[in-house]
Amino acid sequence: MSVPFDKDPLTLSEQLAKLRPRGMHIADEVKAKVYLSNISYYRLSAYWYTFLELPQSDHCFRTDADFDKVIATYVFDRKFRLLLFDEIERIEIAIKTRLIQEFSEFRGRNWYEDPKLYIKPTHHVGFLKCVDDEMVRTSEVFIAHYRRKYGTTARPPAWLAFQLVSFGQVSRLLKNLRSGPETKAIALYFGSDMQVLASWVESLAFVRNTCAHHARLWNRCLPKAPMLPNKPAHAWLRSVPGPGYDRNLYVALAAWRYLLARFIPSTSFSTKLKQLFVDYPTIPVRYMGFTPEWDNEPLWKD
Hints:
Number of strands: 0
Order of helices and strands: HHHHHHHHHHHH
Shape: globular
Helix content: 40-55%
């Protein structure tokens, strides 16, 4: 049975007064108010949640709960998102490029319009609608040039169209393409099979959107666990978290490290990630599903 929402807004002083009796240590009230002014109580509450005693619904903090630690966790998460967003951009562009190249060479410039390439007609219709919607919304110069020069309302070739569609749309496309020489060539390029690759890209798209919306990421569970490769072509994890923990970020991060190494052998992703943990040693990596000896895995060696 639902109840009416009855919470009133609180002043900054009232917000601090609410935290202290619950056990939050606040060394510098002036500084704490600055953070609350710029970040907000509600947004920070997601970061002090892990400092709560069980059951967390009682809202009582552990003895180590400290406002400065909460801020450190928030700053870590921000830098973590920036790191991942940068690496995901590289993978997104590489995935799109391989799709465009492999299919355009053998299926023609507008291959994505061919219904025979899709598993179900609804998938075909759905992707074309995405392209059409983006064509209406876009203000990209290259699309205006295409229309002006060629005087057509026809859909543009794949190498133009795929600059408009989102990574989430590409993720859905990968899952809905029929298996064929082109999909196998794409999977081979990334050292995987298409089913596993599509699963990894789905996780990538979710995290990318989380980063783009500045949402909490560090201890978030994925909607779906990334698939594990049966016979990886290159170095993979020797120790993989079991069911439940496989929806944490660690397996997904390992998948992206694997992909990056396929087309950027000199990738510094591992070094950057390890350095971030060095810079923020109080962040418990167990919330992300990291195994105890994760940094000794061959996969994470730069």
